Amino acid sequence: MLGGPPDGSYRSVLINPKIRGRRREAPLAAARAGQPLDPSQAMWVRVVEYMIEDRATCGELFCLITNLLDHETAPAVELAGVYHERWDIELSFDEIETHHIGHQRVLRSRAPELVKQEIWGMLLTHYAIRHIMKDAADTVGTDPDRLSFMRSFRVIRRQVANQAGFSPSPNDDGTD
Question: Do residues 53 and 116 share a domain?
Fold first, then answer.
């Protein structure tokens, strides 16, 4: 730790992992002396440590490392909040790739326009499921993140009377 702002975060130095042995001491000495760092050797970072008290993390300590050094422009509390929310998009990708598409990793369409159409269809389906989940959560006064995507997906799928069980046309030009 090399001193830090009043928001509880602290500054540190990341050293290029390709630098080994005694060569690692030069960037550290420059940092301690307050001298500029050679970007090919090291960079200043800010470390924000925080805990989230909930059932999923059990009070786990999170360490966020950022190149946003100004604590007034990017306070530690705000960084921790937006970093935690960042994972929502990762969860959405997982829902689409793993649970929605399942083991079908290859798109069925063969023409570029149909591939685009198939991707849009998957994204719209995911959005529709998430929208229904939001409405359901609002009805009972809970956070939509507390609902299971897979359980919702299965309930909705059971309500669809005629699921499409055919592949798009095998013609290369995308026509039927």
Answer: no
Where in the sequence is the domain holding 28, given as residue range(s)?
10-74
Handedness of CA 131, 161, 159, 94 (dihedral sign): negative
Q: What is the DSSP string of 34-89?
A: TPPPPTTTEEEEEEEEEE--STTTTS-EEEEEES---TTTS-HHHHHHHHHHHHHH
Residue 168 CA to chain centroid, in angstroms?
Answer: 32
* pTM for the predicted model, two decimal places: 0.54
Blockwise average pLDDT, block size 10, the chain, 176 residues: 74 88 85 86 92 71 91 92 80 81 73 90 91 95 90 86 60 54
Please report the sign of the dihedral spanned by the C-alpha atoms of residue 117, residue 121, residue 124, residue 126.
Answer: negative
| DSSP classification of residue 141 | T
Same domain flag for 44 and 109: no
